Amino acid sequence: FREKKILILSCTRRAIAVMVTTVGTRTRTMSRSGASASIKAPTTSSGLAPRRGVRSRRRSVPGNPAALSNFPWVCLRDHNRRVVPYEASRPRGVALTSRASSSSSASSSSSPAPPTQISLFRIALPTALCLLLCNVCRIAMSIAVLKAAAEFGWSDTVSGVIQSSFLWGYMATQLAGGILADKLGGKVVMAFSVAWFSVATALTPLAAGLGQGPLMLARALVGLGEGVALPSMNNLVGKGVRPERRATALGVSFAGFHSGNILGLLVSPLLIASYGWRSLFYVFGALGLPALLVWQRFVPDHASVDGIAPKEKSAGAEAIPIRALVSSPSAWAIFLANFVNHWG
User: Fold this and answer.
1) For residue 232, with 0-12 CB atoms within 10 Å meaning exposed, 13-18 middle and 19 or more buried, which class applies?
2) Residue among 48, 53, 52 nearest 21 (CA)
3) Residue 136 and residue 284: Cα distance in Å, rounded?
4) What is the pLDDT of residues 177-194, one digit of tens each?
5) 11, 82, 202, 270 - which has most CB atoms within 10 Å?
6) Whole-angstrom Cα distance, residue 74 to residue 112?
7) What gap in Å lies between CA 294 and CA 278, rounded to an integer?
8) How many angstroms separate the Cα of 267 from the Cα of each of 37, 131, 204?
9) Residue of 257, 198, 258 lying closest to 232 (CA atoms)
């Protein structure tokens, strides 16, 4: 009630001051010029009308400076009875309505919105699904090669070369996959990977009918697409998940990756017995479409798990020179462990 009363009194006094000032100015203008034309009083940089032998009544008018900006001659008097502009006489710390609202709206519009918190499973589970399909398409040839060799009369040597052709492409895109993931983002590169190796897998039976060379090329293309999958996973987890939760995200992702071996070894014999060895590549290749739809639907474009802002991520990330990485004993231990792991 007190605030409403103060607001009503302020508006009333402001209206009276404006009316008195307007009438007084119009009267003085008519008396000086002797005509009905109005002359606008000049103002100084401080917003006050200069005194040139003409006395003007100045009233103390509290209120909104936005309304007083049209009447620069309305001023206040300080405790020494000196005429000062309204803005200078306003007590320090007192915010006015129009300027406060405009400044608050400007600050709210300019301030960035807080990052949206996302569950790490929105990254880990779709990644696990894509890596599962990646491994299923990888081992399909290892299971179907026996039936295909019997049909086309391949020797053991030819069968071994055909199976190794996958690794030709797989090895070629490991480094390129990491570079692309850093530049384009893990989501884009992973989506490209799934689309690429799914199409190449579905075309494998057709390539086998054309000869050994086209078949090796088709398997190398599958390896090219799958070679960027793991670098994309590392990019997503490294940039989108907090350090204390990255082990969980990597565990979920690799669980899906190795589950592809289990699923492929269980399902492949059933498909071969029912529909032939070509059905493996058609079925596993067709699964890339729903996996790609799930990936695009659930994985965020700019991954920010647990409210990590982009500035925080960029500030916390430190670029490691290649020379320091190659000269690190820990890095060589990881290289050796992966080499031994994939030897068999």
Assistant:
1) buried
2) 48
3) 7
4) 988 998 998 999 999 999
5) 202
6) 40
7) 26
8) 98, 17, 18
9) 257
| Residue 303, C-beta contacts closer than 8 angstroms, at least 6 positions apart | 118, 123, 186, 187, 236, 239, 240, 241
End-to-end CA distance of the chain: 84
CA separation for the pair 23, 26 (Å, rounded): 5
149-182 per-position pLDDT tens digit: 999 999 999 999 999 999 999 988 988 898 899 8
pLDDT at position 3 is 64
Rounded Cα gap, residues 200 and 276, in angstroms: 19
For residue 27, name the pLDDT band (cuts at 50, 70, 90).
low
Both tokens of residue 265? 């070894």
**What are the φ/ψ torsions at residue 310 (nearest 5 degrees)?**
-60, -35
Work out the pLDDT band at 244, boundaries 50, 70, 90: confident
φ and ψ at residue 39, rounded to 5 degrees: -115, 130
pLDDT for 48 equals 47
Length of the chain, please? 344
Higher-confidence position of 200 and 25: 200
Which of 39, 43, 29, 50 has its CA nearest to residue 71? 43
Q: Is 93 left (phi over 0), alpha (psi -120 to 50) or beta?
A: left
